[in-house]
């Protein structure tokens, strides 16, 4: 796996993939059957009561401060660095063999040159396959971590929404502002973040 591929893969996970995933997670807690009633359109106390059932979570804050995500990020960064170092070591060793062959080729017999070139060609193919396998392994682990994060957030928000009578949970992100404005009184990011981190702290013990 090349350095560029590794960095791109992790960058996608850390900045794009999880943000999209978080949006899907909180959206899955919505009640698709809920529709505005006549009371909602008419105003008054009943309207305010219904509006207060709609809340939102700031995805940027949640991802920045959710300890579980921080640990996942560190784990994937470490894996990317190790894979990168392994690939660099293999590439350097192969380049040395090629340079050594190029230096000795003029004095080698035709048969020796052919066998050496065939061996180097096989090694080059092996290096390419190793790169592809490393990329596939990283992508598979990334997808697995995405799924785990999705499940953790979704399951908690379903429980939290039910306990507090929320009918709709929205998500906000500065990089993907589907919600253009939301009153701060409707934000539940801190209480969600506190609960998620508390649950994760218990798991780590």
Q: How would you sum up this structure, described in words?
A:
InterPro entries: Chaperone_Skp, Skp_dom_sf. Belongs to the Skp family. Keywords: Signal. It comes from Parapedobacter defluvii. This is Periplasmic chaperone for outer membrane proteins Skp. By secondary structure, this protein is mainly alpha-helical. It has one domain. Helix content is 75%, strand content 5%. The protein contains seven helices and two strands, in the order αααβαααβα. The protein has a two-stranded parallel ribbon with strand order 1-2. The longest helix has 55 residues. The two termini are 35 Å apart. The relative contact order is 0.20. The N terminus is likely disordered.
């Amino acid at each position: 796996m090349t350095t560029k591929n590794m960095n791109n893969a992790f960058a996608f996970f850390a900045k794009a993939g999880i943000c999209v995933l978080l949006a899907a997670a909180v959206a899955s807690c919505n009640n698709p059957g809920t529709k505005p009633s006549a009371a909602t359109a008419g105003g008054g106390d009943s309207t305010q009561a219904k509006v207060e059932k709609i809340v939102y979570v700031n995805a940027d804050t949640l991802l920045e401060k959710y300890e579980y995500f921080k640990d996942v990020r560190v784990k994937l960064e470490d894996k990317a660095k190790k894979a990168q170092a392994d690939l660099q070591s293999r590439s350097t060793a192969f380049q040395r063999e090629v340079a050594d062959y190029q230096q000795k080729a003029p004095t080698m017999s035709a048969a020796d040159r052919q066998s050496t070139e065939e061996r180097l060609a096989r090694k080059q193919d092996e290096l390419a396959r190793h790169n592809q396998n490393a990329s596939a392994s990283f992508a598979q682990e990334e997808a697995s971590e995405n799924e785990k994060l999705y499940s953790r957030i979704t399951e908690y928000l379903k429980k939290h929404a039910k306990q507090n009578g929320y009918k709709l949970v929205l998500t906000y992100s500065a990089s993907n502002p589907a919600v253009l404005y939301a009153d701060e009184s409707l934000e539940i990011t801190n209480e969600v973040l506190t609960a998620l981190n508390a649950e994760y702290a218990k798991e780590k013990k």
